[in-house]
Amino acid sequence: MTDLIIGNDYDGNVDANPSTTTTLGELVEQRYSRRQMMGGMSAMTTAAFGASLLAGCSDDEDGRNDVITVSDGTTVQAQGGRVVTLSSTASSNATSSTWTQVSGPTVALTVSGTSVSFVTPNVTATTNIVLQFTASGPSGSSSERSTVVVSPATLAFTAVAKNKNDIVTVPTGYTATVLYRAGDPIASGVAAFANNGSDTNYAQRAGDNHDGMSYFGLAASGSAPDAGNSTRGLLAINHEYINPQYMHVGAPTTAADAAGVQRRPEAEVVKEIEAHGVSVVEVLRAGNTGAWSYVAASALNRRVTPNTPMAFSGPARGDAQLRTRYSADGTTGRGTINNCANGAMPWGTYATCEENWAGYFARSSTDTAVRTAAGNARQVTSMSRYGVGTSSRYGWETVAPADASSTIFTRWNASAVAANAADGTGDFRNEPFTFGWVVEIDPYDPSSTPRKRTALGRMAHEGVMAGRMIAGVKPAFYMGDDGRNEYIYKFVSATAWSAADATASNRLATGDKYLDTGTLYVAKFNADGTGIWLPLVFGQNGLDANNARYPFASQADVLINARLAGDVLGATPMDRPEWTAVNPVNGEMYCTLTNNSNRRGVASSSSTRAVDAANPRAYVDTRTDGGTNSGNANGHIVRLREANDSTESLTFTWDVYAFGARANANADNVNLSGLDDTNDFSSPDGLWFGLPTNAAGQASPLLFVQTDDGAYTDVTNCMMLIGMPGRVGDGTTKSVTTTSGGTATTTTRVGAAPGAKLKRFLVGPKECEITGITSTADGRTIFVNVQHPGEDGNFANITSNWPQSQATGTGTGRPRAATVVITKDDGGVVGL
Hints:
Blueprint: H1 24-31, H2 34-37, H3 43-49, H4 51-54, E1 75-79, E2 83-87, E3 96-103, E4 110-112, E5 115-119, E6 127-137, E7 140-151, E8 174-181, E9 210-217, E10 232-239, H5 244-247, E11 255-256, E12 262-263, H6 266-274, E13 277-285, E14 292-294, E15 302-304, E16 309-313, E17 332-334, E18 339-344, E19 350-354, H7 367-373, H8 377-386, E20 438-441, E21 451-453, E22 461-466, E23 476-481, E24 484-486, E25 488-493, H9 507-515, E26 518-525, E27 530-535, H10 555-560, H11 562-569, E28 574-575, E29 577-582, E30 589-593, E31 599-600, E32 609-610, E33 619-622, E34 628-631, E35 636-642, E36 651-659, E37 684-689, E38 703-707, E39 719-723, E40 732-737, E41 745-750, E42 758-763, E43 769-775, E44 781-787, E45 818-824
Parallel strand pairs: 1-7, 16-21, 31-32
Antiparallel strand pairs: 2-5, 3-6, 4-5, 6-7, 8-45, 9-10, 10-13, 11-12, 13-14, 13-15, 16-17, 18-19, 19-20, 20-21, 22-23, 23-25, 24-28, 25-26, 26-27, 27-36, 29-30, 30-35, 33-34, 35-36, 37-38, 38-39, 39-42, 40-41, 43-44, 44-45
Helix pairs in contact: 7-8
């Protein structure tokens, strides 16, 4: 130990009082042991006596002439994302102590007495972090340094085995707890959820089937945003659709009216409608390491449902195709529905995405003739391209409401009525055009009106992910259109990013700035590993009134019919593009291609597509139960690198990060990524990178992959994996021969085999989908959603009891979708 000697001269300050009365120093010594006093003041000591009093206390009743000493420094080893705690001691005559960082990447220090803790950042090479402990007294101080040697992070957990248990299974060393369940009340006075089908008022309860989700930090006071707060925040959660077989007392019902028309009962349909949309709910952690809970009575809690007023913004605002009986000028609408994936905007708003909305509408058998007679035959083409048919998913349009003036049910009838005005203001023939958008919500302002951002195009939006935000560069926002043989898009803002907007006070106005003006592009993947972004701009490349299939009338028309525009431009049909995610370090974009039963070696009909370089597999997937799946049954994850790594670029290179497959599948034509039992998967869906504010998003960021699978469920429930991917081009080319729908050989580009850099982290309960993921800024808590557990059962045949079963593995109650909190038992960054 190195002792620093401070001041050894006699200064004349001696105790000349002969009294035997107990001194203050002796009182302190009696109340607090020498061990408590070493190294300076504890929090308790400071509160009781104050720093000025303690400055005069020591074992020799003065101590100014004593040597102040501190313990030796130390050197410790740690990987990125780990909690490091250093403890030191000082001699009893020290009256205060401090820890400071001397060198290395800046870390947030938590000091407790003479100990300090911090979470190591991730690094690309071994890096030293040096901290200094200093103890001080009346006549000087003494210091000692410690070094933490940080090495690059690894996936330091044991892969979870595939299983069909009725719980959320996570690795040893982690804890998963249920936070927010379908039906949970989010307002004062709302009764606890009975979960027997009798519950009502979903407008003030958690909706059903939780999906995409983002966390927004709150200040400790709860009165303002604080993106860095990892113990108090808001969760914005999508509620994609419903499980009506569990929502009512019995099965959903219909009954014939006096005219013999089959109608749904109003009370049932009100519940079903309200259970869709978005929750914004406050969540709180007890201290820095305690349990999470949601705040049921928070003033910031909000449900956004299909009935919530909305405003249109961007090029299609006020367009004739958005005019309805509800909004004659086409500037407003009602609600959001079938909200699947999402995005957290860099200025603190939540973007929710309307996916399979088309199935909620019905058109009568006379609709086509009425539209054609009114001069709107092209609308028939549009309805067909987007899948708006003659029957709806839930029959909401059949309700005959008690209030005859209500339109919350008739709006789902998209039939054009001949007796009404051809502009659509007398009925809801144009209502389908009001859905299929990215919807921006300010989670911090429950009174704000959400905006539908029409510049980002209309489709079956799966998600929207911002590219890297670089000052002076126009940002891009990447999106998938979730349908077989649909496209990948990006929107490039017309406005270059200003870092000051990250903390703008008017968040929706900031959204106006970046999301209402710009260019929407669709991706074309070339066989040589390059690609191009094709602009969806009216008047260019056949997007005009002379187009034979669909004569476009304006830029608004191009955006409203983005799918048709993509067809014209020759975009590459993909195997169900779903979530997008952007690597925060290098800006590369990843997109899950969930599966495609219509992929063939050779196209045989208008609904099938032949294999190509970016979608190279068509094969027969044989299940252990004897069943088979064909096409691209297990899906894959494509990634692209923009030219010059710039969001403004119009060209890119691409490869496939990983092909889903059974571990024992043919390595030449199916298991192209060499997956094994620790990381094989099927039907990738949810996708998300760790945040750059913590080790999960630094150096080699973590990629979270979630599955929505029907092909591999003979072996395992759906799952979540964590990977540490490399870069586009780090692998090789492979020649793939199809074994389904005709023989064809295609050359594709496969990234480096994931190996140990991809592991199964979580397996969900029975019959569920794992979807939705977000984390706190420090990465020490992640939130994951479990959707539709027990979806193959019903109220009379319950096939999952989750989340009731989470505690013991069994239960008796009806299943409920829910949000799960996952933390690492040692307090470190999840996944590392």
